[in-house]
Amino acid sequence: MLGTASLLVAGFFWMQGAVLVMPFAVLELLALAAAFVVHARHATDGESVVLEGGRLVIESESAGVVRRCEFDRDRVRLNTSGRQVLVEVRAGAQAVQIGRHLRSDLRPVLLSEMRRALREG
């Protein structure tokens, strides 16, 4: 819809003799298409945390790349880290930061719920 309106306006002015309007309208549409592609790549980004028996499984997706980490439930240590105050899940040398898709005021809630779930099991 936005592209059609832009091309109609550019076509009107092109017919009035302003021939340079059309190339700029095409550049505008290419920039709009690029923005949609970038947005689409990250539209499905997210994280999932699942406690399966003795394993804590964390999957994170960014730009179509899925990263899966499994931790032994008894060895997991939870901390906060970084300037964004993300939740860090660590077991030995393996560590992953989660919560970047969560509002910053809800990250402490995530941390406390994860600690409670790990204790209860």
Number of helices: 3
Q: Strand order within the widest sheet?
A: 1-2-3
Distance between the termini: 53 Å
Helix-residue proportion? 40-55%
How would you state the average pLDDT, rounded? 91
The profile of the biggest β sheet is:
3 strands, antiparallel
The percentage of residues in β strands lies in 25-35%
Shape: rod-shaped
Count every beta strand, where a strand is a DSSP E run of 2 or more residues: 6
**Domains (count):** 2
Helix-strand category: alpha+beta
Brief account:
With 121 residues, the protein is of the alpha+beta class. The protein is built from three helices and six strands. Strand 1 and strand 2 form a beta hairpin.
Primary descriptors:
121 residues; alpha+beta; 2 domains; three-stranded antiparallel beta sheet; 41% helix
Explained architecture:
The chain is of the alpha+beta class and 121 residues long. It has two domains: 2-42; 46-120. The chain is built from three helices and six strands; from the N terminus they run H-H-E-E-E-E-E-E-H. It has helices at residues 2-15, 21-42, 107-120, and strands spanning 46-52, 55-62, 65-72, 77-81, 86-91, 94-98. The strands form two sheets. It has a three-stranded antiparallel sheet, with no helix packed on it. The protein has a three-stranded antiparallel sheet with strand order 4-5-6, covered by helices on one side. Helix 1 packs antiparallel against helix 2. The longest helix is centred in the N-terminal third of the chain and has 22 residues, at 21-42. The chain is rod-shaped, with a radius of gyration of 24 Å. The model has no long low-confidence stretch (mean pLDDT 91).
